[in-house]
C-alpha cells in the first residue's frame, strides 16, 4: 500500500515531521530500522496490527535483518511469537507489524528509551492505524500497549503494568472500533508470566481464540 510505504520511508530516513525532535533520529545517530515483511505478511485493511517494542538488537533480530518478521528473524522473540501466531486461523497477509519505538541501536544497552522517542513514533503509528483501520491490535510489551491506548483514546494514559494486563485478562476491549489485546514482550514473557503463576499457553490460548473469532473469514 503506497501510502503506508511512503510514511515508513519518511520515518526510516528521519524525514517524517514527528522525527524532528526524536533522540533516535537517524540523521544524528547510527540507528537501525525494521519494516513489516512484505514477503510473508501484508498491508490488508481491517486486519491485525501487531505492535512490538523496538528493533531487536540480538543476533538474528530485526536490527540485523531490517525486517519485522517471525519468518526472516531467528532471535528468541521471533521464535516465540512465531509459535503463537501459528495458531491463528487467518491469512498472514492480514497481519502488519510495527514497533512502538521505530529506531533502535545495535547495542541497545548504550541508550535508554524515553517518552520523547515513544511519542515521536506514536504520531507515525497513528497515521498508519488511520489507513489500515485494523479490527484488532496486539500490543507486545508496555510501550506498545501504552502507545496503542493513547492513540485510540486520544489522551495520555499512565504507564501500564503487568497487574493492569492481568486485571483486564490481557484484553482491553474495543476502543474506537479496534479490539486491543496485550501480552508481555516475547523475549521476557515466560519470566513475567511465571511471577503470576501464568503460562504463555494459557494467556495466548485465550487471546488467539478471541482473535480467530474476530478476524476469521
Quickly list its features.
alpha/beta, globular, two-stranded antiparallel ribbon, Uracil-DNA Glycosylase, subunit E, 5-stranded mixed β-sheet, 9 strands, 217 residues, single chain, 16% strand
Give a summary of the structure in a few sentences:
With 217 residues, the chain is α/β, with parallel strands linked by helices. The chain is built from 8 helices and 9 strands.
- Spatial strand sequence of the major β-sheet: 5-3-7-9-8
Helix content: 25-40%
Oligomer: single chain
Structural class by sheet pairing and helices:
alpha/beta
CATH homologous superfamily designation: Uracil-DNA glycosylase-like domain
Number of helices: 8
Q: In percent, how much strand structure appears in the residues?
A: 15-25%
Q: Which stretches of 5+ consecutive residues score pLDDT under 50? A: none
How many discrete domains?
A: 1
Number of strands: 9
How much is the average pLDDT?
A: 93
User: Whole-Å distance between the termini?
Assistant: 22 Å
**Element-level helix/strand string:** HEEEHEHEEHEHHEEHH
Quick one: CATH class? Answer: Alpha Beta
Radius of gyration over all CA atoms, rounded = 16 Å
How many strands, what sense, and barrel or not for the largest sheet?
5 strands, mixed
Shape, per Cα inertia axes: globular
**CATH architecture field:** 3-Layer(aba) Sandwich
CATH topology: Uracil-DNA Glycosylase, subunit E
